[in-house]
Amino acid sequence: MPSITKTKQFRKKSPPPVPEAGTGWTFLTNHAHVLILLAGDPEMLLREVAQTVGITERAVQKIVAELESGGVLTREREGRRNRYEIHREIPLRHPIEAHRKVGHILSAILAGK
C-alpha cells in the first residue's frame, strides 16, 4: 500500500491592518505632538495646534507653558502672534530616554517632511 504524504501549504501572512489616524492610543504624548507641530511651524496658532492634535486650546496652552518652564521652548512675542523657538539640545526627561535630546526625536519625526 503506497504511503500518503500530506504537504503543508504555506501562505504568506499579510501585514496587520494600519489603524486609522486619530483612533486608539498613540506612541507619542500630546506634549510630543505639540512640540513636533511647533518645530515644523514656529508661528502656528495654538488654536490650529489644538485642532491638529485633537485636544482643547486650553490643554495646548498648558502644554506650551510646561514645555517653556522645562526649558524645551521659548515663546517670543511678534506683534499679535507668538513665535516658538525649540531648544533641541535639551535632554529628554524620562530616565529611559535621557541619553537622547529633544532634537533627536524631532529629527526622526520631521525627517520625511
Describe this structure in words.
The chain has 113 residues and is α+β, with helices and mostly antiparallel strands. The protein has four helices and two strands. A two-stranded antiparallel ribbon has the order 1-2. Helix 1 (30-40) packs across helix 3 and helix 2 (46-53) packs across helix 3. The longest helix is centred in the middle third of the chain and has 13 residues, at 57-69. The protein starts with 29 loop residues before the first helix and ends with a helix. The model has no long low-confidence stretch (mean pLDDT 89).
List keywords for this structure.
2 strands; 4 helices; 113 residues
How would you summarize what this structure contains?
By secondary structure, the chain is an alpha+beta fold. Helix content is 36%, strand content 11%.
Secondary structure blueprint with pairings:
Layout: H1 30-40, H2 46-53, H3 57-69, E1 73-78, E2 81-86, H4 102-110
What's the mean pLDDT score? 89
Report the uncertain regions: none
Strand order of the largest sheet: 1-2
Percent helix range = 25-40%
Helix and strand composition category? alpha+beta
